User: Which sequence fits this backbone?
């Protein structure tokens, strides 16, 4: 976050990114539940960057993000996706926990998933969207515990998925299991237990990438000889 734009309006994605840092902090024991509740409430009520910044200023996750990519991005990106070589950031710690207790959690947009990520959902739901995520290693393991709840994992094309979970009166979606990955792309292993719940895995493009591919197909259709030249 830049210090010279404190009054810039924050978006829903900005507020959710702060909420993600706070959830990780309470899971690691850095914040007491009372303080977590206060900060989370303030995050969702915040309207500017200046109101969001103090909520994570004393947390290691925010400090690490400040050393590299900004935790709250002011830049809108479009065009072709980032190469896999730039998205596998070996040595980064990344986010490791998502907890949904009678509620939900969400990880999406620009974030880094750790080599080991645990999703625990009790009568709640979680979303793990890896389409814009960086990976702390070439292989990440997502362990899901879904009890009367569910976890939905979204991966981009090119990522290999290995589903090893067990469903009891519930299920693990293995539809993407075994699809070959692109050279250099990360591998995602999904394991754990779904008890009267479910874990789903789907492969989707970002809307911006869909538009880019659609425009590319239209360009080739309009100029079929140009590609041959």
Assistant:
């Amino acid at each position: 976050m830049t210090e010279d734009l404190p009054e810039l309006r924050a978006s829903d994605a900005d507020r959710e990114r702060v909420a993600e840092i706070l959830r990780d902090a309470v899971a690691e024991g850095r914040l007491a539940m009372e303080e977590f509740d206060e900060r989370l409430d303030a995050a969702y009520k915040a309207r500017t960057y200046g109101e969001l910044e103090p909520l994570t200023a004393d947390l290691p996750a925010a400090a690490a993000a400040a050393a590299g990519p900004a935790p709250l991005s002011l830049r809108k990106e479009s065009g072709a996706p980032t190469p896999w070589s730039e998205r596998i950031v070996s040595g980064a710690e990344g986010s490791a926990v998502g907890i949904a207790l009678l509620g939900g959690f969400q990880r999406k947009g620009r974030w880094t998933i750790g080599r080991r990520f645990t999703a625990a959902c009790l009568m709640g739901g979680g979303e793990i969207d890896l389409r814009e995520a960086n990976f702390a290693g070439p292989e990440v393991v997502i362990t899901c515990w879904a009890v009367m709840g569910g976890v939905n994992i979204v991966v981009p094309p090119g990522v290999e998925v290995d589903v090893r979970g067990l469903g009891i009166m519930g299920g693990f979606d293995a539809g993407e299991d075994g699809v070959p990955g692109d050279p250099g792309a990360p591998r995602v292993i999904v394991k754990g237990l779904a008890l009267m719940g479910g874990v789903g895995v789907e492969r989707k493009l970002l809307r911006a990438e869909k538009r880019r591919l659609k425009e590319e197909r239209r360009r080739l259709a309009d100029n079929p000889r140009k590609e041959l030249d």
Remarks:
- DSSP finds seven helices and twelve strands in the chain.
- The first helix runs from residue 12 to 27.
- The radius of gyration is 19 Å.
